[in-house]
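Now read this:
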Amino acid sequence: MRAAAADGVPLGVRSGYRSYATQKVVYARWVRTLGKARADRVSARAGHSEHQTGLAVDVLARGSTFGSFGRTPQARWVARNAWRYGFVVRYRAGQEKVTGYSPEPWHLRYVGVALATDMRRSGSTSLEAHLRIAAAPDYR
């Protein structure tokens, strides 16, 4: 995917696999910065992060931040093409009550080409909706 995007919209990997210890530090930083309630909307507690599965990756455009990524050509490319490589944008705008998290156009979850293609064809907006599981389960 990164190689395919490189032609005009180069992507960089900001974060991939995280250990339990690393996720614990990440979550604690968000709690200190935002308070627990808001931190729970933007970060998973250790033991509950998709990054700990090795199936999630955060991508950015060179020179962008998480806050600005959604307005980049790379974000638009990812939204249109990630499914071709087995990834879905995991936390989409408008899905907060379904996923339990604020929008993260940079957070991709590998689900495999078959499932990503099926989700694209069916118009699914979240894994929860597509898999018919409860909205906003307590991942935290």
Remarks:
- The chain has a mean pLDDT of 92.
- Residues 13 and 60 are 6 Å apart (CA to CA).
